[in-house]
Specification:
It is a single chain. The protein has a single domain, classed as 2-enoyl-CoA Hydratase, Chain A, domain 1. Helices cover 28% and strands 18% of the residues. The chain has eight helices and eight strands; from the N terminus they run αβββαβαααββαββαα. It has helices spanning 4-9, 65-80, 102-107, 110-113, 116-120, 141-147, 163-168, 184-187, and strands at 31-33, 40-45, 50-55, 86-91, 130-134, 137-139, 151-154, 159-161. The chain has a six-stranded mixed beta sheet with strand order 1-2-3-4-5-7, with helices on one face. A hairpin with a 6-residue loop joins strand 1 (31-33) and strand 2 (40-45). The chain is globular, with a radius of gyration of 16 Å.
């Protein structure tokens, strides 16, 4: 029998992660591009020791429930990849992301919902620095994802907001304190945040 406290801190991973092996050997200067992912792609440049996770569902780059699981698994795989010394999270198109696909949240099982904060907190658990580069819309789960990164590069066109913090009182989906609760004051507003 497993320790219930550990199950809350670290939810069990999904049975199978549909993430490609990013540690496969590649020519030193070539970029490795992965296909078959839900709404994003991975590019690893071994010569630059850099991996890019690129949200790629324009025009709004909506993040699905499956994508959350795959993003977590991708950050974990890149964290274990010795060729990668820096990870950049960015997006194709005019907007970083308009947030979550609401239908997926409504259709998800309670067990799946308990993993949401763990999945989105994956960048914070990486040993390498993770940089989020955003422009345009960066709402909801996308904003939470950027908060989990070590550095945030924000274009002056960015509009950032997380309405979930206002309604949830900075609690994660499973009722525990949200991992980014220190940012509550910044998030609990519908005003555009200034770029620093």
């Amino acid at each position: 029998m497993s320790d219930p406290a550990r199950r809350i801190a670290e939810p069990d991973p999904p049975v199978a992660d549909p993430v490609p092996d990013v540690s496969a050997s590649a020519p030193p200067r070539a970029s490795v591009r992965s296909d078959g992912l839900d709404g994003f792609r991975i590019e690893v440049d071994a010569a630059q020791e850099r991996a890019d996770i690129i949200l790629d569902r324009p025009p709004l780059n909506v993040i699905t429930m499956a994508e959350r699981e795959q993003l977590r698994a991708t950050f974990e795989a890149l964290d274990a990849d010795r060729r990668v010394r820096i990870i950049v999270l960015r997006a194709e198109g005019e907007h970083f992301s308009s947030g979550a696909e609401i239908r997926g949240l409504l259709d998800a099982s309670p067990e799946h919902l308990t993993r949401l904060a763990w999945n989105i907190g994956a960048p914070a658990r990486c040993r390498q620095p993770v940089i989020a580069a955003s422009r345009g819309y960066c709402f909801g789960v996308a904003f939470e994802l950027t908060l989990a990164c070590d550095f945030r590069l924000v274009a002056d066109t960015a509009a950032r907001h997380d309405p979930g913090f206002w309604g949830r009182g900075a609690a994660a989906e499973d009722g525990r304190p949200h991992p980014f609760q220190g940012h509550r004051d910044a998030l609990a507003t519908d005003q555009r945040l200034p770029c620093l």
